[in-house]
Amino acid sequence: MMDEAAHRDDEPQIDTDTVMVAAPDPVRNSQELDEEDNTLRPSFLRKVTEALDAEDQETVYNLVEPLHPADIADLIELIGHEYRAPLARAITDLLGSDVLAELNDWVRDDLVDELEPDEVADLAEQMETDDAVALIEDLDEEDQAAVLAEMEPEDRAAIESALSYPEESAGRLMSRDVIAVPEHLTVGALIDYLRSDDELATEFWEVFVVDVKHRPVGTCQLSWILRTPREVALADVMKRDQTLIPVTMDQEEVALRFQKYALISAAVVDGSGRLVGQITVDDVVHIIQEEASEDILRLSGAGDGDINEPIALTVRTRLSWLVVNLGTAIIAASVVGLFQGAIARFALLAVLMPIVSGMGGNAGTQTLAVVVRAIATNQLTSSNTVRMILRELRIALANGLSLGVLIGVGTTLIFGNPHLGAVIAAAMVINNLVAGLAGILVPVTLDRLRVDPAVSSAVFVTMATDVMGFFSFLGLAVITGLAA
């Protein structure tokens, strides 16, 4: 008891009477932010652009200076392209690593192009390793080499090491600022070490415990360390079960592990199992957002869908998929051409056939969206694919019967032709079944072939529902003698 009391006496005491409340965050109190969506007000953007037009850099600086770095990044993105370079020159000392880390990739590249290599190097050295890599990795090889040459040897080595890993891998994403200690330490010794070494990381949530080969054997959360008596050994309090991230793991799989195991941070290990870095949840949030947006936009063939993307690149990306869609539309039109005689004899077929194909396309898109998401989140695997197919077919049959009854009865009442109503109802059921089957088989097949199902699936599903929609409706009309 005496030893423990002595340790407590050695600890710095907190005077609760003199504890000060932190100053409010300027972001929350800024009058330039819209209260509803926390975005910069249009009136504020006009003030900045007017000051830039007047080349009044002092006014520009005074307007921008109270903003949080994230809001400065928003300002640079929202302002016109022609104003970005003058704005950057007016707020040079405000344009720090915190701002660049928040910027859209395309906008950041434009700004970096305006800076000298030594200026980029200074900013990169202020950043976390993962943010610095994101800043440098998109530069041309010549510019990349020039920036790296201006960096301190230790920082340059860390960046070059990260760049050696595949793009969108844990090695590119991880931070090398980790706290790693041997397991023979006591909690008290660890606390003393954390306080005494000024070179340690300033932001961390857990301490990694490693063996003599620097392989992680456990982890201790800060809350455990602060609440445990000093004399207790780390080996007795640390958590030995932990989720380790291979350095080559794809960032999407990293995000799934964080989501599945509710992680705040995780150790990253190399091929030999040595601790080389850590990934924290704030990085994973960005990944989840990027991957979700990417999949949604790829389903529509819109590419990255970034409003800051160069127009030429956007046109090239969208046009390539529009050309593919044109080809599938020609295939569907050729099916209609096979029945032009029947359409000529019974013109109502031409009026109603788009309904069958259109509803099938919508049903197929619904199934496709569910399946692509299931694949992306590892909910759909080889073990439950058959069950998923049967499930979607039951859903498609139920939807097809319901829609078939509605369109059949409606067609009969409007056109007074029960035969026509029965034909379109049957075609609706058939095409909904095709839509459900295509909506799951197309993305699953593409995934098995190592092709991103979010990119290509929509084209093939739409083609299947268009072709089968026209073929089933017109074919049934001919077979049943409706268009005789």
Descriptive account of the structure:
The strands form 2 sheets. A 3-stranded mixed sheet has the order 1-2-3. Helix 10 (129-136) crosses helix 12 (153-163), helix 21 (348-376) runs parallel beside helix 23 (418-448) and helix 21 packs antiparallel against helix 24. The protein contains 24 helices and 6 strands. It is mainly α and 484 residues long. The model is unreliable at 1-29 (pLDDT under 50). A hairpin with a 5-residue loop joins strand 5 (265-269) and strand 6. The protein folds into 3 domains: 22-168, MgtE N-terminal domain-like (MgtE N-terminal fold); 180-299, Roll (CBS-domain), CATH 3.10.580.10; 311-479, SLC41 divalent cation transporters, integral membrane domain (Tetracycline Repressor, domain 2).
Brief digest:
The protein has helices at residues 2-10, 26-29, 42-53, 57-64, 69-78, 81-90, 97-102, 105-113, 117-126, 129-136, 141-149, 153-163, 170-173, 187-196, 222-227, 234-237, 251-261, 281-299, 311-337, 340-345, 348-376, 385-415, 418-448, 453-479; strands at residues 180-182, 206-210, 216-221, 244-246, 265-269, 275-280.
